Amino acid sequence: MTKSPMLIALCILLLSSCQVQENDRFPNIVVIFTDDLGYGDIGVFGHPTIATPHLDRMASEGLKFTQFYSGASVCTPSRAALLTGRLPIRSGMASSQTRVLFPFSTSGLPASEITIAEMVKERGYATGIFGKWHLGHLPQFLPTAHGFDEYFGVPYSNDMRPTPESRWVAAQNYPPLPLLENDSLIEESPDQRLLTKRYTEKAIDFMTRHSEKPFFLYVPHTFPHIPLYASSDFEGKSARGLYGDVVEELDWSVGEILQAIRDLKLEEETLVIFTSDNGPWLVMNEEGGSAGLLREGKGSTWEGGMREPTIAWWPGTIAAGKVTQSLATMMDILPTAAELCEWQIPEDRTFDGVSLLPIFNDTQAEVREVVFYYLGAELFAVRKGPWKLHFKTLTPYVGQQAESHDPPLLYHLLHDPSELQNIAEDHPDMVQNLRTVAQEHLNSFVPPPSELEKIDTALYNGSKSYPAFY
Amino acid sequence: MTKSPMLIALCILLLSSCQVQENDRFPNIVVIFTDDLGYGDIGVFGHPTIATPHLDRMASEGLKFTQFYSGASVCTPSRAALLTGRLPIRSGMASSQTRVLFPFSTSGLPASEITIAEMVKERGYATGIFGKWHLGHLPQFLPTAHGFDEYFGVPYSNDMRPTPESRWVAAQNYPPLPLLENDSLIEESPDQRLLTKRYTEKAIDFMTRHSEKPFFLYVPHTFPHIPLYASSDFEGKSARGLYGDVVEELDWSVGEILQAIRDLKLEEETLVIFTSDNGPWLVMNEEGGSAGLLREGKGSTWEGGMREPTIAWWPGTIAAGKVTQSLATMMDILPTAAELCEWQIPEDRTFDGVSLLPIFNDTQAEVREVVFYYLGAELFAVRKGPWKLHFKTLTPYVGQQAESHDPPLLYHLLHDPSELQNIAEDHPDMVQNLRTVAQEHLNSFVPPPSELEKIDTALYNGSKSYPAFY
Question: Which of the four CATH numbers 3.40.50.9100, 3.30.365.10, 3.40.720.10, 3.30.390.10 does domain A26-368 have?
């Protein structure tokens, strides 16, 4: 058979157009991140009285993860884990004394860390963050110093604001909550009722402005961290009360972002991941969330503290309406993004993630077997496959000290997701196996000094007041 | 304009054909009922390691109820409530001494009660039950005496079988578990691994044989009541262990039944309701289920004992992918069925249900405000709107006595679904309001003698052995 020159030309044209398209357009990556949302706080994860039709739809069009973990059970280290793809203990973002960054902190995420934003920026992405940062509020630690082209949001938690009545000296004199745009203060004490809406508008505006080239959009919401605020469109609307109002507004925000992606006709080239930073703040009672059937919440290494309600959405790549029990962590997002934008992961440091693409395109059932549960700088527990071994446990925020367990507590998380039956005695081999996994991990690296412990003692003691912009 | 005789004739033809269709074909009604399945035991209600793709799909095509209640927290009275549309206390199916029927019981659901089966039979329906009855195993109490044309299944719970090692005398000498067809024993000690499959096959066969006229199909599964059994297709397959295997086989069964309805092209004329009889049997540990974020389980009047994972499915009538927080109970199914088949509800007795059609077709947000929580013959708690008042509580199956509360405990179930914050002191008016609701209810009727307390004392004492067919 002789090949027609016309046909050959057509093939070349087709091939080259594919090539061009691939190089021109890496997929967009969107991470929507809530603050203190519990595993059981959205409809498709079982909440009875918080209505989340947009997240439910996102799950029915996408992939629901039932065993997706945070890198920590509180804000700052969790965000470090997400953006660096590394355990917070490796980046100095862990401490057992000072669990998060405060207004009196003098450090933040080190410049030597590579964030997802820096990585994708090298590959031509536009990068934007609209929401809460909490990886350092001084200029050299802000998002704009970590690969983000654009920033709009608060630098730390929304309860870090003037609290003169606090019994905690350090909090008595906090400066007004700053709202930043890029590296400038634009408002003091912004109306928190409007934060979710403002982040959402900014996020959509960002996608609209950058619809012609790939973008990385990171929306780390301020809520449902306390104090709770919802806009007038949502306040008083949820059956669950104010906490529900706030979560339903976050759900609305997810719906707006997904709809904007559809309107921009980018749904087949945009991966969206929804997850949360850590478990629900249970001691806040009605103002805190629910971990569903999981034990405990924020600040704890029980499952409720670190397993997050997570949904991935990417029409055309991720099949609709799937549920995966695959183990995954937020540190897997960086390697996933690296694969998507063909970035070579450097070998000068250890990353703790693996790409989730084989889960997304259903070519592999499992991509990881082990999860480490740190509380501050200390390894409290380890999971391998179905087994979880607790060396220490803590019931957080009630003044209790951590309890050490020797022999450690062993649970089979698949059979016993609520961690009710310690079966260490029946499985001494498994206890030993997990002990070894933990020990080998701990022996494999030397943590750098903690950045979280670097504080301005005078601010902390209240002997100095905060400068105007902090 | 002159009307064309042709056009008039066509209109008459169309109208009359509609008329004929409506009269000829009331909608089919299918109730799939599990045994001891917990509120948190299926994917779309939040379970992480039990895979229920068919129930998840049923919810995504139908309506998920997040506040749907059983009529009791154990088997027999719950089934009485479902089939009669009345609180078990009205039908003699409640007792505080003998909570369910046993092989030594001598009574069952009274002939004077009207079941859904009897009702729809009057309106021309074929009626079939394939599964566990538990409303009386003597011939005069069997399904065939209560309106069912066809019966295949076990007469009571699957743990009511020879248990010579039991410390409970009454159970030492139980007869082999009977498998009945209509009113005849067809097998003793059937292979329980095959029960779910056999019920499913019979159910599909029943629908296929009766596809030309309306049918009422009731599939009260034997499982996940203990002892747990799954077929070889499911045993060892679920991440959750044997309990998960069993639930995943039930999920498969739901998928088969819905697919059969689609294959028969009956999906637009068939209402399917999936629910469970009571909460999970928590003291069974891994062999029991999970109530998710709800408190306690089977045998208790905390929410976990009586709130059921419920899905309604009726393509074309029920919109796809909706979630309702409307209060509903299984006693609402009879009035719903009555409205569907245009049956006049008799006025000689009190029914405790209301039709759910306004919820199904979304013309009304709420159809009921009050739920009564009986433990045995005693009213333990009452719910009105968001408020629940507990007069008594019990931690079941651990030998504890019921605890009386005066003042009673008050919870706001919408804000606090896990019943963690007793707020009675802050809301004395609401306590009084709910006390009045309870008192008026109790004053409004005189319960008949309990049928559950009618037992063969010699069988109970072990001084007589069971006859061949019981």
Answer: 3.40.720.10
